[in-house]
Amino acid sequence: MRKVIGIGETTFDIIFKDGQPVSAVPGGSAFNAIISLGRSGVNTTFISEAGNDRIGNYVVDFLRDNGVNAENVNMYSDSKSSLSLAFLDDNNNADYIFYKSQPHDRFDFSYPEINRDDIVLFSSFFALNPAVRPQMSAFLEYAHKQGAILYYDVNYRASHRDEVMKITPNLIENLEFSDIVRGSNEDFEILYKQSDADKVYRSEISFYCKNFICTRGKEPISVYAEGGFKKEYAFESMKAVSTIGAGDNFNAGFIYGLMRQNITRNDIEHGLSEAQWDALTAYGKAFSAECCKDIYNYVSKDFGAKLKANS
User: Which family does it belong to (predicted)?
Assistant: First the structure.
């Protein structure tokens, strides 16, 4: 049975609207996607670290309660779990403040079993951080050699703008490992001072990875792939309660589509058809739209239950 392995940070998100806290939920880029996939019946594992405190215990319990294998979440007694404050504006887009403990340079974990065509999701600064780069790089190399599909969400925040030069070699290595890369126009404005998807793909991505998805909030999604394939996909208009998990859940839906459509690494390497890209993007949009209907970072349990019932 194919499975999805996510690796990334865990945070505890406190969400504010009009200056008042309105929700507090576990979060993290890869974490949010993995929760949505777990709720949708996908065999999932999450690799991360947390403090051995009430928040860390809650995060691990939350993973397990949503069907995610949490055996590879390391809890450190000398660290505090990370917090994220998200402030929603009038359009329910979020501005963030992060309070994070530095990842342990001793971050060690047992590799979960990875088989050919399993999917590995890695993302955000955790995937670039020099403090854990040896472990991250070794794990990605192992997953690639095992024949997994590597899906990379760049998700580079403005809070790390001053570190771009330092992490560029790690970024390039991540792109080289990847079978599919997704990022937002905001990510690339920070990294490359360039937000035009065509220019980013041609000058920064395509040499390393041919399959590229660029999201731009409510604007159309741009997809680029082998053989000069390019297509844009519009988002249907909707009233968003929160956009905090929109990109993370696009990743979840896209990965769910890879599983549901039984798309393998060989298929990706030989080039997907337009119909396959259409279906995968539709799954991504559906998960993203569902997440935006509420204040939480993931698809609802009812949404996941319907997918499980139809699988």
Answer: Belongs to the carbohydrate kinase PfkB family.
Q: Write down the pTM of the prediction.
A: 0.96
248: amino acid identity, one letter: D
- Domain carrying residue 147: 4-105+116-310
Which range among 97-101, 106-110, 291-295 shows the weakest confidence by mean pLDDT? Answer: 106-110
Structure tokens at 125: 């600064």
- The number of folded domains in the chain is 1
Q: Which two tokens stand for residue 281?
A: 């993007």
Phi, psi of 113 (to 5 degrees): -60, 130
Q: What is the DSSP letter of 128?
A: T
Segment 205-231 shows an average pLDDT of: 96
Task: Kindly give, in sequence order, each residue whose CB lies less than 8 Å from that of residue 187, ignoring residues fewer than 6 positions away.
Answer: 154, 155, 156
Q: Quick check: is 101 in a domain? A: yes
Alpha helical stretches, state H, 11-163: 29-39, 54-65, 133-145
DSSP 171: H
Residue 61 lies in a domain: yes
- For residue 264, pLDDT over 80 is answered with yes
What is the domain-level CATH number for residue 276? 3.40.1190.20
